Amino acid sequence: MKQQKALTLKTLTKSNVWEVEENDIFRMWETAEKESDFKDNRNHYIDVIRSAFEIEEIKIDKPEVIKKYEARDFKVGNIHFDDNDNKKWGIKKRAINRITDLTYENIHHISAAKLIEVLDRNFGGGWDSLSQSIQDIIESGFDISTTTLPKDRLHKPGGMYDKKVNDGYEVLEITKGLWVEAIFAKAKPKVENHHKHDDDNDSMNNGFGDNYDEDLEDENPSENSYDDDDDDFDEDKLTEESYRTTFETEEDLNLEAEDVADDDY
Predict the structure, then answer these.
(1) Number of other CB atoms surrounding residue 161 within 10 Å
(2) Which residues on neighbouring strands pair with residue 88, listed in sequence order?
(3) Mind listing the pLDDT tens digit for each residue in 147-171?
(4) Which residues face 89 on adjacent strands?
(5) Alpha carbon distances (Å) from 60 to 57, 74, 84
(6) Segment 67-74 long-range contacts (CB within 8 Å, at least 24 positions apart)
(7) Strand locations in 44-108, DSSP E?
(8) How high does pLDDT run on average in the chain?
(9) How far apart are the first and last CA of the chain?
(10) Contact (Cβ atoms closer than 8 angstroms) between residue 17 and residue 49
């Protein structure tokens, strides 16, 4: 496997900037300021850095002020703009704590456990309560599947819950009365650029491979069907899907009937 080339300010993007930490920013800035085109690209560099980091200029350079920034988890360092313009910055990686913090740029840089933590902290209405845009962002980086079952059925030994967990999925359980919705999440493997066979979309990729996951989504068509062997009859699987259908579609059928009536008359 080829060793990945070290990132620089020139190669930093709003996606891979999530791979670096505060001290890396100071180091890369110090290296880049020696280059002839640094001043021309300086605003671009700052824009990219700000997409993943909070930046605060420290105008009062006193120990007691620095300690206050450090107490807020800022890393403090000197930033040289040119020979006559030196600044002191406090830099801190942006936290991903809320659903609205998730973006196409950072979704590939968090773990499934972190995703479950974010979901658990922000909502209790289930997967369908998320907006379509947030679902799309999450599914660009993770395989997601859900099921809703009575509490006493969800953890049945050898059932879908056990199989998903054993397959490396993280799970969030959301109680809905006597039922529980389980949301399973597993990070999708990162796809290298040379695996892409459709050259027509190269201009959309920008060299980072972030848009390729959608093209390879659902490589295993049985992932969401829960049927590991179509030739075998599994009463537990049939029962689980029957529970899910009964619970989720009863209200939808009534709505569909009303819609038909409105259209025909």
Answers:
(1) 22
(2) 78
(3) 999 988 999 998 999 999 999 999 9
(4) 57, 77
(5) 9, 15, 18
(6) 74/22
(7) 53-57, 75-82, 85-93
(8) 78
(9) 66
(10) yes
